[in-house]
């Protein structure tokens, strides 16, 4: 049978997989057998975040400071390649659906942290990251013409406060790789001209070439919905993979993993290369064999890429277990597995 599935068949596969009326008895039985499973690496990350969040909630800044310093010094990764320093800052996030009163509580905690440790790079990067998210909380996720005047005002004011906080942090002796990731996010919100953004990116990559959050930030900013044209983010992924001091095929795959959700099939709607993604996924699975998330991403992306050989291998390893955060609805998993096994819908 043909190893590759056509675009129309793939599209029908995933659209139909989300409609209950499309399921036959065999598929319903397969869905009933599935076991939503947790990723052990993600569970370790959540436990780490909870520990850091408890220190933050209880204003135990004197314990957070050396923890961050040690992460900057040793540059450890979790078992999926995620930088622990990035997860450290993620620990303090406030969900966008939280009420305004909770955001104000977070604002006070961050200001207390800076007041107690005025020379801390950690406190200022954390506060700038909060202000960036606080700006988006005010703006909301609607299209530009649906944003209120007050939303735009607060968006601009909070992004400018984040920029000023980062400028203060830049004057400190100690440096933090997350400074540039937050700065790139602020720059995107403030619509920094491309040459200025690229200069900031090159500075970041010179500081920490393998900190892949920078590349995700840049590629995301080049989506057509932001400041790019069709083909821009794919071209950037090629450039990032070609850097002699970078992550090679791994960063190409990570960029596609971060952006494929914007499309029905990223390999048919963009210039993204499945062979390069395949190479990167295989490399990552060798480096991070405990990551259940990477195995699930490989299974899903190999289906989108029409690669039955890899789909059969990875779906076979999964059996009846799957990671909901990757697949969404279980129907998608069942339909993908059926295609891998038979080559037909």
Question: Can you give me a brief rundown of this structure?
Answer:
The protein is mostly helical and 345 residues long.
Mean pLDDT: 91
Shape: globular
What oligomeric assembly is this protein in?
A: single chain
- Poorly predicted runs: 1-15, 17-21
Q: Give the strand tally.
A: 2
Helix % is 55-70%
Number of distinct helices? 19
Q: SSE order, as H and E?
A: HHEHHHHHHHHHHHHHHHEHH
Q: What is the rounded Rg?
A: 22 Å
**N→C terminal distance:** 13 Å
| Sequence of strands across the biggest β-sheet | 1-2
Strand content: under 5%
The SS-based structural class is: mainly alpha
What does the largest sheet look like? 2 strands, parallel
Explain this structure to me?
With 345 residues, this protein is mostly helical. It has helices spanning 7-16, 25-33, 40-57, 61-74, 84-90, 100-116, 121-139, 149-170, 177-189, 194-207, 213-221, 232-242, 249-259, 266-269, 274-287, 292-304, 308-318, 324-327, 330-342; strands at residues 35-36, 321-322. It has a domain at 1-39 and 291-345. Helix 9 (177-189) packs antiparallel against helix 10 (194-207). 38% of the residues are buried. Residues 1-15 and 17-21 have low confidence and may be disordered.
Topology at a glance:
Elements lengths: L6 H10 L8 H9 L1 E2 L3 H18 L3 H14 L9 H7 L9 H17 L4 H19 L9 H22 L6 H13 L4 H14 L5 H9 L10 H11 L6 H11 L6 H4 L4 H14 L4 H13 L3 H11 L2 E2 L1 H4 L2 H13 L3
Parallel strand pairs: 1-2
Main attributes of the structure:
about 350 residues; mainly alpha; two-stranded parallel sheet; 2 strands
